[in-house]
């Protein structure tokens, strides 16, 4: 369940970052794909940094609000970061 939350929030984060950073915007499809990849990575990294506490809560069926918010934050930030990287690379290749 936490992976799904991370992927969805990553897609949203990628599109929000694309909307805010017009020069890195790659269109809705690329923004979403970059966000999904970043959301998965961001959620995994955040879970590893917190000692897997969120994964243990999810495995026990106890998804509390803190773990959900943590996944949304990690996924959203990860999605935005990966979109920024993709945007910079694509802009450099276009020149």
Automatic annotation (TrEMBL):
Residue stretches spanning the membrane: 68-89
Annotated keywords: Membrane, Transmembrane, Transmembrane helix
Top-level lineage group: Bacteria
Protein name: DNA methyltransferase
């Amino acid at each position: 369940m936490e992976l799904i939350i991370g992927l969805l929030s990553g897609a949203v984060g990628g599109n929000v970052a694309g909307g805010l950073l017009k020069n890195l915007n790659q269109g809705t499809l690329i923004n979403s794909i970059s966000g999904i990849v970043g959301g998965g990575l961001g959620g995994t990294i955040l879970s590893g940094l917190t000692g897997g506490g969120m994964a243990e809560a999810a495995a026990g069926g106890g998804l509390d609000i803190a773990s959900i918010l943590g996944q949304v934050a990690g996924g959203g930030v990860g999605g935005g970061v990966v979109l920024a990287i993709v945007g910079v690379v694509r802009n450099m290749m276009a020149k």
